[in-house]
Amino acid sequence: MIPPNASLVKYDNPVLVSRNTEKKTPRARNLKASPTPPANTGPVPNPPAKGKSPSSVADAKTQQTEEILNSILPPREWQEGGQLWVQQVSSTPATRLDVVNLQEQLDLRLQQRQARETGICPVRRELYSQCFDELIRQVTINCAERGLLLLRVRDEIRMTIAAYQTLYESSVAFGMRKALQAEQGKADMEKRISELETDKRDLERQVNELKAKCEAIEKREAERRQVEEKKHSEEIQFLKRTNQQLKTQLEGIIAPKK
Question: Segment Disordered: which positions (predicted)?
């Protein structure tokens, strides 16, 4: 027989139920199946009526405790060689030594499976869940009402953790979408920047060409202006000389008559 997956919860020895693997015991838990929904945490069934022998009362109480334990921690079942094996949770009361051993086993498995001490760690959560289930089993054997109350606490914690996990996954998905959008926006902006830089270089080239043309025009106009000024200056000097000559001639003509 292949032993089932190791767990901190104490179970009885496996029992061969049937060679027909199609039949399964009610309320049994498959080792490969997903976790069962929270068990019914209603009131504990009434104790057996008075008037019965102490042995029958004890047997009824033991049976009642086993039923409560099976509702809290359903039996495990698995198949091997065409045979169906079932393993129920133990109804043996725990001693102080069992509690100490549970703590040692918890620390040992945390170390063996390299569970992280802080942060989110599925391994640490699994082991502590098994430890809590074992504590619920131990308490339920001594006081069924207290065990069922702890069961409600356990289910509430699991529901809260599941809600936080869903919120965390949604936040991660939202963050991934935003990151992808940011990357896409970054790529678009980089492309736009490249286009603007190309346009800037083209405009700078055009500005340089226009500056060169403007400087050439200014130089050409300056040279033309110098030529024009020189020409005008020469014409003025020529006119002045001509005027002086005419004035001299006129004075020479007028002077003898006096």
Answer: 1-63
Other Cβ atoms closer than 10 A to 14:
19
Confidence at residue 29, expressed as pLDDT on a 0 to 100 scale: 53
Strands of 29-30's sheet in order across: 15-18, 83-87, 76-80, 29-30
pLDDT in tens, 7-26: 888 888 888 877 654 545 55
Is the distance from CB of 139 to CB of 146 less than 8 angstroms?
yes
In a domain, 98, yes or no: no
Q: Within a domain: residue 114?
A: no
- Judge contact between 115 and 36, C-beta under 8 A: no
Instruction: Please state at what angle helix 122-142 crosses helix 144-257, rounded to 10 degrees.
Output: 150
Tokens of 100: 């100490």
Residue 99 lies in a domain: no
The contacts of residue 138 (CB under 8 Å, 6+ apart) are: 93, 94, 98, 99
Residue 133 domain-assigned?
no
Domain residues for the domain of 219 are: 174-252
Average pLDDT for the chain: 83
What end-to-end distance do the CA atoms of the chain give, in Å? 164
